[in-house]
Design a protein that fits this description.
With about 375 residues, the chain is α/β, with parallel strands linked by helices. It has ten helices and 16 strands. The strands form four sheets. It has a six-stranded mixed β-sheet, sandwiched between helices. Strands 4-5-16-15 form a four-stranded antiparallel β-sheet, with helices on one face. Strands 10-11-9-12 form a four-stranded antiparallel β-sheet. The radius of gyration is 23 Å and the shape is elongated.
Length: about 375
């Protein structure tokens, strides 16, 4: 049956939900902005201790270029649970937006994206061991990264190495609206385009300059034309900086570009086109930095796991599951890009990611935790 939204106080919830809420509060109140390496390190130790307390096994804490990730690796892993413990919220946010539970709603920085999903994954593993024994942990790998919100620059290699050992990956990012699971994500490419011109006095001899602002504007228009609405491809110039003084022909301009594409072929088309762009302003030089960050999570990588989830949800008496395609990327893009079946959006149901109204619905905690536990159990048995 469909989760019923309730205004009951927390003590009225089932014991497993109360336990997950207690652990979630602990995680949310441990602030972990991606850019603060000390905070992320502290958070990693809190996550590792929580995993040890709930599962009886102490995970590794991996430090890569100062960023701390938590890894509980199954010796014969068949299933991978992928989460992250960093957030977009700066230190001190918890004072302004404290953790709360009221009228069936959880609030607090990072509760929706994605600390509830992390807490649910730990308890789903706990339920699995209670049902089938501790040896089940040998068949599951839990990876909790510390830099997902930055594009996973230090964790990508770990993610891909661990995923290659597994038959399936479940990503505990938040669900879509009304609980929809994410079966398709656009790939992400990020560029910084540098335009090199030549400075000159804009009043005395502007003809001796090469105006980087004009060249940037012209190149920006070329890039915007690479978008293809019918293919779901966007090419969006974002931040722009140019010039040094009001009376000087700009010698340099720099702007950022965000590209999203539903297929690897589209992503490669745009990448090649951006690298081939030249300015039509004589003498202006175009220098391209960056490139493809995350490959698309294409539908084919998720549909088999989604059908499994649909069937299991039905046997559990839950409403039929919906699937959704989204423009945002996650670490699931990396695993799907390897060809490993990947199902995303297995975490919190709510809304307000990265916004002051970030929230999650308590009524969905138990159904989603049970769904994850059953999916893990079936896939471990099937691949054994």
């Amino acid at each position: 049956m469909r989760p019923v939204r309730t205004s009951e106080d927390a003590p009225a919830y089932p014991a497993v939900v109360r336990a997950i809420l207690a652990d979630l509060r602990r995680l949310v109140e441990t602030e972990s902005p991606s850019s603060d390496l000390d905070a992320v390190e502290h958070s990693a130790h809190v996550v590792a201790e929580l995993v040890y307390e709930r599962l009886g096994r102490r995970p590794e804490i991996l430090c890569v270029q100062g960023v701390h990730h938590v890894l509980l690796r199954g010796s014969a892993a068949r299933v991978m649970i992928l989460a992250h413990h960093d957030t977009v919220w700066p230190l001190g946010t918890i004072t302004d937006l404290p953790y709360s539970e009221a009228d069936g709603i959880i609030r607090g920085p990072g509760c929706f994206d994605m600390k509830l999903g992390l807490a649910q994954s730990i308890h789903a593993l706990r339920q699995l061991t209670e049902r089938r024994g501790d040896e089940m942990l040998e068949h599951v790998t839990l990876l909790v990264t510390g830099d997902e919100e930055l594009g996973s620059p230090t964790s990508r290699e770990i993610i891909e190495n661990e995923a290659r050992r597994c038959f399936a990956v479940f990503v505990l990012e938040a669900a879509g609206s009304d609980g929809a699971l994410k079966t398709e994500r656009k790939g992400v490419s990020r560029y910084q385009i540098e335009i090199i011109g030549r400075a000159a006095h804009s009043g005395l001899e502007p003809e001796k300059g090469i105006n980087a602002t004009i060249a940037a504007a012209e190149v920006i228009l070329q890039i915007a034309e690479l978008a293809d609405q019918s293919a779901g491809t966007t090419a969006t110039p974002t931040v722009l900086n140019s010039g040094t003084a009001p009376n000087t022909v700009p010698a340099k301009a720099v702007f950022d570009v965000d590209v999203r594409a539903t297929t690897a072929l589209e992503q490669q088309r745009v990448d090649q086109s951006i690298r081939a762009i030249n300015s039509r302003i004589p003498g202006a030089e175009v220098v391209v930095h960056g490139g493809i960050n995350r490959p698309p999570m294409e539908h084919d990588a998720a549909i088999s796991l989604f059908r499994d989830a649909q069937r299991i949800a039905c046997t559990l008496g839950q409403d039929p599951l919906r699937e959704i395609s989204v423009g945002g990327a996650s670490d699931g893009n990396f695993t799907a890009g390897l060809g490993v079946p990947t199902l995303d959006g297995m975490g919190a149901v709510g809304g307000g990611a990265h916004a002051r109204d970030e929230h999650a619905e308590i009524a969905w905690i138990l159904p989603r935790t049970e769904l994850l536990r059953n999916l893990m159990e079936e896939l471990v048995d099937r691949s054994g």
